[in-house]
Amino acid sequence: MSGLNNIEMVIEEKKEDGVDRQKVCPFLLRVFVSSNGHHHKISDYSKGTVPENELQIYTWRDATLSELAILVKKVSPEARRKGTKLTYALVYPDSRQPVYRLRDIGSTISGQKGPEDLKTLGQARFTIGDYMDISITPPEHWNNSPRKNFANSYNNHRQRQY
Fold it and tell me: What family is this protein classified in (predicted)?
């Protein structure tokens, strides 16, 4: 029994959809980046066609939106600017019709930490074969949106009340 005293226990904290990246082979994620502040039209993904500006990333289901942002910034200089918003959407085939659907899954902001930075592809219900559509919006175009101004005034109002 004296041998039991020499045993070390190692406890690893794993994400809910964590993957052992040393043992699990990555898959190809086809990413289409738009620099005009809007996602591609869903019609761009019809009849076997896809938008022209494809970025191919090998990754895992536990990849986060912030990890994807780092990879996009390496090839898209416009995404590197502080305050630039990257909005992510999954493009997937409709199971009942021969068309694709687009579903927003989150956003990140260059140079700022946000609540969706650690969201994983698995949490977004990504399925191998889906596409990723990423919209890049410079800070001057999204900072002045009425929705953001509403959120700021609402939060400032709430802070003054307490």
Answer: Belongs to the SAP18 family.
- Euclidean distance between the first and the last CA atom of the chain, given in angstroms as a whole number: 61
From the list 109, 24, 104, the residue with the least C-alpha distance to 66 is 109
Which residues lie below 8 Å from residue 88, measured CB to CB, with a gap of 6+?
65, 68, 104, 105, 106, 107, 108, 124, 132, 133, 134
CA pair distance 139, 90, nearest whole angstrom: 23
Q: Which of 55, 38, 29 is nearest to 136 (CA)?
A: 38
Our measurement of the distance from residue 128's CA atom to the centroid of its chain's CA atoms, rounded to an integer in Å, reads: 15
The H or E element that residue 148 is part of is: helix 146-161
How far is 66 from 116, CA to CA, in rounded Å? 8
Could you tell me how many residues make up the chain? 162
Annotation: CATH topology of 21-157: Ubiquitin-like (UB roll) (3.10.20)
Residue 3 has which token pair?
């041998």
Cα separation, 47 vs 44, whole angstroms: 9
Q: Give the span between the Cα atoms of 102 and 93, in whole angstroms.
A: 9
Q: Return the beta strands (E) in the chain as ranges.
A: 27-34, 54-59, 85-93, 100-109, 131-137
- Tens digits of per-residue pLDDT, 101-131? 999 999 999 999 999 999 999 999 999 999 9
